[in-house]
Structure formats: C-alpha cells, structure tokens
Amino acid sequence: MLTRKNLEPISHKTLSSQLKELEISNLIHREQYNEVPPKVEYSLTEEGMTLIPILEFMSKWGDKHIKK
After folding, report:
1. Which one of 21, 36, 39, 44 has the largest count of C-beta atoms within 10 Å of its C-beta?
2. pTM of the full predicted structure?
3. Per-residue confidence in pLDDT tens, the chain, 68 aa
C-alpha cells in the first residue's frame, strides 16, 4: 500500500492539489473514513485504470532509455 511517507519529499500542498485534480478528472476516487486519527484512501476509477497500460509502457521505455 502506498502511503504519504512513500511520497517524500513532496509537500502536503502539492500532493493535495494533485489528488484534487485527479479526482475532478474522474481518474481517482476518494474515500474518507470517520476515524481517529482521520483516514482517507484513494483508488483508481474505471477511467483511471485505462491509464495503466500507458503508464506501464512509459515505465518500460524509461528503464530502457534513461541512464541510471
């Protein structure tokens, strides 16, 4: 599971802004739980899942062409 800590050093403001944009674009779904401490989960929508093959292709291209 991806957590906020896995995304360092992204700022809270940047992460929040990007997640809102993805939600507005119907690429992710936000689920908020009324717990203490507060808990929010994000998941891909069906439309968001259509990006998986493109992202996998880009990742493979990067592995092949970008020097490490």
Report:
1. 44
2. 0.75
3. 666 666 668 888 998 999 999 999 999 999 999 999 999 999 999 999 999 999 999 999 999 998 76
